[in-house]
Every structure is written in C-alpha cells, then in structure tokens.
Amino acid sequence: MGKYIVKRLALLLFTLFIVMSVCLILIRLLPVPAVTRVPGADITLQYKKLVALGYLIEKPNGEFVKAPLFTSYLAFWKNVFTGWNWGEGLTMYPTKGVWEILLQKLPYTVLVNLYALLLAAPLGIALGIFAALKKNGWQDHLISVAVVVFISVPSYVYAFLVQYFVCYKWGWFDLQVAKGLPVLSGRVFLSMLPAVFSLSFGVIAGLTRYTRAEVSEVLTSEYMLLARAKGLTKGQAVMRHALRNAMVVIFPVVLGEFIGVLSGSLIIEQVFGIPGVGALYISSIQMKDYNFFMALTFFYTAIGLLSGLIVDVSYGIIDPRIRIGGKK
Fold first, then answer.
1. How far apart are CA 78 and CA 282, in angstroms?
2. 3-state class of 66 per DSSP?
3. Residue finishing a domain among 44, 73, 94
4. What global pTM score does this model have?
C-alpha cells in the first residue's frame, strides 16, 4: 500500500505540473495584463511587480517590455517553489496577495459543499437501500425514474428553480447569501440553504443509483443465501451482512462525491452570490486576472486529482482484502 500511494502521489504531481505548465504557457502567450491604477500607488512599482512575476522585463533605459516566454515560465515556477508566491491581483483585488484572498474565500466554498454532502449522503444511501429492498416493485421504478431525471438535469437548473420558488415566490429564504457576517453564523447558514438544496439533488441521485446497484448485488450473493439458510430473518441478514459489505464500496464514493461537488459548485456560487472560490474563479476569467486564474486552476486541478487518489486508497484501507489481493 505504501509503494502504491507513493507511486500515485508521484503521478499526481507530474500530472499537476503538466496541466499547470500548459495553462501557464497559454496565458503567457496572451498580451501582458493591464495594470489597474491604485490611488496613491506608484505605477512604476506596479510594473516592477510584473517584472518579478515574469510578465515584463525592464530595459536599461527604464522601458518595460514583454518578457520572453521561457524567462516568464521560469520566473513563475521560481516564485511558486521558493516562496509560494502566486503574485498579487492584477485587475481584481489589486495589491492584495492572490493566495491570501483565496484562503479568505475558501471557507464559504467548503461549507456550502459540506452542508450539501451532509444532507445528500444519508438521503441518497437510504433511498438506494430502499430501492434495492423493493427491487422491481413500483417503489423501485419510481425512484429509478426520479434518479434518471435528477442526474440528467444540471445543478444550475435546480438553482434557478429553487431561487424562483423557494426564495422569490414563497419567500422562505433570501435570494443571495448573507455577507458581512461570520461564515459560521446561523444567519449565513440559513441563507446558504437554497444553494445547498441545489447542489444536493444531483448528489442524492448519484448515491441512490450507486447504492441501489451495490446493495442489489450483495442481496443476491451466496453468503446472503447462507445467512438466510442458517435461520436469520431478512432484516437481520440485511443489517448484519448486506449493508456492512455494501458500505465498503459506498463509503469511498461518498468521499469522492464531496470532493467532486467541491470542484463543481462554480455556477451555484455565482447564482446565489456566495463569496467563495468558485465565484472568484469565474471572475478571474471574465476580468482577465491571470494570477488569480493560475492559482485557482492549481486549486481545482489538485482537488480533482486528489479525489481520485483518496477514493482509490480508501478502498484498500476500508477493505483489507484489496491490499492482500495486490500482494505478489
């Protein structure tokens, strides 16, 4: 298991480096970003910061020109590896550190996705188990149709429906997330619920489908027939054997769902005005703030790669049979 984790980590870092390098090269081929003039700040100092970041070079006569691609590429990685310096905002949050702003926004993104998972995981697993126990019954068919519908419809469609009916028509919640309050306050939590509902529908459907398939397979296995033959009731066999074995496969999926939702709440944050990382990412693209774009690309790429690693490793940790089967 140790060798496998080290190997996967090495592949993860290599993939992350390749993705970041491709994005960096494409970004540096674009025109040099415009410098937002900050009142009271020396514009020359702002240009010198672009020199430090590798966007420009300063000629002996004091003129600033676009840096060669290779020089710019090396400057970026030097700043990241030596001081974890992702630069400052160019068009958004000028003179403020990119990573500092990202860490300020991150709690909103983590919390809205955590709330969505805490709501979706129990419901999805419960519906999946119920559908498996009622396999081929009308309950199973009804749940299966609902799952197909909810998986097929994008989350931002649910966001608009929730915003219209729950927030605007019925007036149960605010249209936008409350700002200017502590992120863990009750007021912020209540205002996040519409976004949480919008994110939960797809996760509930996905977990329901996966749980139903896994539990249905376990219920028809030979050791379940043996358990019933020994005198266990259907309920006892399901609780002691079926669910226990099915959860070995389902639990890593729940972990993957959380990380997957974390990287997929970009539009939801924008719709509900959540001051999180997703809204920041979209704004960085719209406003051509390359420093924010690179830092957030790193964040989301790392999240996506880590999700696969965590799910794969968790299988071996939860089920020792997988580790034993991998030994030669």
1. 26
2. strand
3. 94
4. 0.78
